[in-house]
Amino acid sequence: MKIKLISVGKTSQKEIISLFSYYKERLPKIFNFESLEIKELKNRSSLSEIEQKNQEAKLILEQINFSDFIILLDEKGKSFTSKDFANYINQKLISNQQSIVFIIGGPYGFGDEIIQRANEKVSLSAMTFTHQMIRLFFIEQLYRAYSILTNKKYHHE
Description:
Elements: E1 2-8, H1 14-26, E2 34-38, H2 49-61, E3 69-79, H3 82-94, E4 99-104, H4 112-117, E5 120-123, H5 131-149
Parallel strand pairs: 1-2, 1-4, 3-4, 3-5
């Protein structure tokens, strides 16, 4: 199986890049993890929020396949404890799904095309965080899920 993270905008903070790389390197090969950054729109200030979301949606859709299982990372999505998220990931691993794509939207969220294409929404928090931080929180929780599923000494309750 392949787990892919697509996010809008580039991560510029070296501390976040370093921590993201740290967790990415610790992920098991079975996750076949890939991270892809969609470039921010160049003419963003001249576009309405809806136009921005729609243009970002087109760029994101170019990066996904018809057979991909799409999960939007959205504060209005389903909330999990870390153990529940681990079980959620495990269910995806044992399913016949070849590729799961998690998507972090742009500053105004997701365009209608992405929302319609999505299979599910997952919330990492009801709070709002920068898109750079969400990448880090996501990959840490993905690693935590792996550690829970394999009984590694990382997660404590």
